[in-house]
Amino acid sequence: MRSFINFLDKVEDGARESLSRMPIVYGIIGGTAIVLFWRGVWHLADMFELSGGIWATIFSAPVSTVLSAIVLLFTGLFVSYFIGDRIILSGLTHEKKLEEKTESEVRAEGALLLDMYKKLEHIEREVAHLKENTQTLKK
Questions:
Q1: pTM for this structure?
Q2: Higher pLDDT, 32 or 74
């Protein structure tokens, strides 16, 4: 079972890498698959609702909306939906997805970004200082 999951992971990495070079095609394929998935979920919910009883209550619009929002929040998918552009960027740069990175890799990347931020601040201070000196010399 583990080898099958590893195989699927490798296929997914390859597809993500290839499709990230064609964002429009990637968007069309992904969008179509998402719509078809939700269409299937919708029809399944309708089947349960038509059967009546407790299923009709569970799959009513307000209850299913709240339940799905809770599930999405607990699984982290609610937030990750809004940062999906990282998938395209990670495919282009051959990076691991954020979910696949270890804590130490994420911390190292954060430290690198902090170091770059400090260097940028230093450069901005130097530019401001040079501007002041230039204005002083002009007077």
A1: 0.43
A2: 32
